[in-house]
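Two folds, back to back.
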Amino acid sequence: MDRICIEKELRENAYPGRGIILGKSADGKSAVAAYFIMGRSQNSRNRIFVEDGEGIRTQAFDESKLEDPSLIIYAPVRVLGNKTIVTNGDQTDTIYDLMNQQFTFEQALRTREFEPDAPNYTPRISGIIKLADGSMNYALSILKSANGNPESCQRYTFSYNAPLAGDGHFIHTYQCDGSPLPSFEGEPKLVSIPNCIDEFTDTLWNALNEENKVSLFVRYIDIATGEAKTKIVNKNK
């Protein structure tokens, strides 16, 4: 698979929707997770990320302007022991709860489908990082309609065992802007992960479309110790 430049990829796509990047830093010392949200409507743009324990949640920036919270207010990131879960919806809680009952990542997601937001049927994208014995692995998932037909849910899981230093993978909800919005297609895209959380955060945030970007979360987790560093950037301040 050809490696893409994540900065160029984001600059050239005004609306990838919501995106997850998981990978390993170039020096091999950190497991890395990034998640961003974008919005076209006032309701979607009226959000911020806030820390919630070891994870984060979305919150209305202006409560008086909050309309339908059902698909925009959720916990994108939760931590279960040595596992960090990142998703674009309330399936974070499904994964957390069922994995806590010894279900696998894939088994938990078999209980869910794409979002019921016709005509887009937004895919549910999910990721998980697992640390163990000084090593890491990660997986990404997408649940999507059959080319816009809600009669069929298509489920894809991509697992990355013993990832190489500097490698990451990027998955997002939409191919690009449109009406209806076209779902992501193909495998997650291979990207490079730098050593510095500040550098990576700035690269992603500055490359996202200025009008549509809403919030960004980036976390670097020391693979040896589990110690985490987190950066959150909100457009609304």
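---
second:
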Amino acid sequence: MRNIAEELKSLDYHGRGIMIGKSEDGKKAVIAYFIMGRSENSRNRVFVEDGDGIRTKAFDESKMVDPHLIIYAPVRVLDNKTIVTNGDQTDTIYDGMAKGLTFEQSLRTREYEDDKPNFTPRISGIIELENGGMNMSISILKSDDGDDACCLRNTFTYDNPKAGEVRFIHTYKAAGNPLPSFEGEPKKLSVPDMDLDAFTKYVWENLNEDNKVSLFTRYIDLETGKWESRIVNKNV
């Protein structure tokens, strides 16, 4: 099992990435979401707080070209559930679950992103707290090896995940033109025993310096549901 630093250093460009899991002491849910960018439009972003979640925002509004896959709310909270995604499907999941649908059912209305020829996967995660414990799920909606006639839908569910581990999914498996989508199960990574500030620094410093844009982290106390978050933006 790799640690987070080893995994993040293994690729210059993961695209966007979600990590969810449980702290080393077993007392907290752990979330990290980051965005990377290679184009000026992708790099022209920051994370800002938005209620109990966050949203993306143009750093320089005059340079924003096409906001439809750039501006969205990556993190929202519904009761005891925290949703984190790489696009506006955050709202789709939130609205669907508010109406009684499951995480997976809510995503049936969505597909990969319409950014031909990459057809960037939509990756989504959810953590649900219950009776001092947690369960979590991760979804990926992607094209069939670049064939946009077929949407592959994979959901991975983890009941009572192990302490000291996160599952990590990201949009691209490697460099390429077009960019190849993530393949396989979410990666299992070890989480060091550290406070939120140290964890945030640990993740941020191991992302590629040229391509990293923004990072969000959150620890949620499993007993009380109280959380604390951090945001790091390259554009300041």
